[in-house]
Each structure stands twice: as structure tokens, then as C-alpha cells.
Amino acid sequence: MRFKPDAYSIEQALDNGDIHFDYQPIVNFADYKLQGYEALVRWEGLTTMQVVDAIESNGLVAVWLKAQVKEITQALKQLPDDLFIAFNLGQDALIEPVLIHELETFPYPERLHLEILETVSLNLGTAEVLDHINAKITIKADDIGIEFPWLDRLVGVYAKHFDGLKLCESLTRHLLTESDCRTATKHIIAMARDKGLSTTAEWVHDPDQAQMLKAFGCESGQGELFGLGGPLST
Fold first, then answer.
1. Which residues make Cβ contacts (< 8 Å) with residue 154, sequence separation at least 6?
2. Which tens digit of pLDDT belongs to each residue from 217-232?
3. Domains plus CATH for the chain?
4. Which of 149, 137, 153, 221 is nearest to 191 (CA)?
5. Against a cut of 0.70, is the pTM above it?
6. In 3D, which of 117, 76, 70 has the Cα closest to residue 98?
């Protein structure tokens, strides 16, 4: 795909199912059993961020949120009751008024995990939204690592809105080769544990990596070792 998507092409792609989710397994390190999936947006020829940017720049966040919730609802109907699905929320999606309505009527709130992107600015407005939706829905801080500030997810007035965090690729891919990444990962996991937050690691590609994360106290992981994602298999 070499064109810059406009509103019409995006809406057509949503109607045709060209914009859809791949589902990446998330596995418990304690017993290596499947816990759930992360829903990763896909549109052939575009990266995830290009798809999201196209949706946001064309003012279709509300349409996309409804499409996501509809697809995830159907997916959860097919899955065993002990599995969850996680999906990402950026700044525009989090402040979109339709979000609260969609989540208030969502049939499986206890099986939905919302991952708040690292680019989201936490303030009184976004905190009010998080406070409104986290009674039954699990809220996680996404991509905790190197590139973006993240301490406000663990410390301070906004930390209470989070139930877990996800360690990003910038840390986990270098665990076996860089001591600084090992030290940082170990301390972040310890901080999360002290706060009662669950921890998930991205980019788990190697059994030794998984064993190290498990030894540090990380609870679950996703990545090539467990499957890169695809259509939901039930």
C-alpha cells in the first residue's frame, strides 16, 4: 500500500475487514500456560503506528474504537472464560467520549485489559477517564522502558489508576547482553511488585530470556518464543 489513507479508504477498510487484529499470545511464566492475547492492529502495507496515525489524523477515532470493541467482543465469545484480550489506547482514544459508553456496555469487562500507551499524558482529564473505567477493567501501563518517562505510572497521584505494567522491547531484547538493561529491568519489576502491580514483558524471543525474567519476578511474557500473533485460534 503506497497511498496515504484518507477517511473514505479507512472506513472502507474497516467495513471490509482489511483493518483488523492479529492476536499475540501472552503466557504465564509460572507454568507457561496461555493467559490471554494482545490485539495488534494490522493493515497490509502499513505499520501499526501508520494505521493509528491515519485513523487519528482523519478524525475516525470513535469509529475505530467501536470497531475494536465489536471485534474483541466476538473474539472473547470464542475463547475460554479464563482468557483475556488486551488492546492499546492512545491519547486521542482515551479522551474520546464514545470510549466510556463502549466500555460501560462491554459484556466481558473482567476479561478486558487496556494498555495505556507510553505517549499518553497523564493529567486530571485522563485520570478521570481511567478512574471511571477501572472498576472492573484491568488497566496497564504500556511500554515501560527507556524512551519515555514512566515513573508517574508507578509513583504519584496517577499511579493508583494502574493494575499492571508492560516492559518494552528497549529493555527486554538486551537482557542477555547488557548489564544495564538487566539492572533496570530487575528494579522496575521490584518496584511494580512493591506496588502490587502485575508485570508482562514484550519481545521474549529466547528461553534464557524468559528464565531470567521469571527469576526477576516478572509474571508473564509475549514474543517470538510464544508466537508472534495471527488470526485467533480457538
1. 141, 162, 165, 191, 192, 195, 197
2. 999 999 999 999 998 8
3. 7-221 (3.20.20.450)
4. 153
5. yes
6. 70
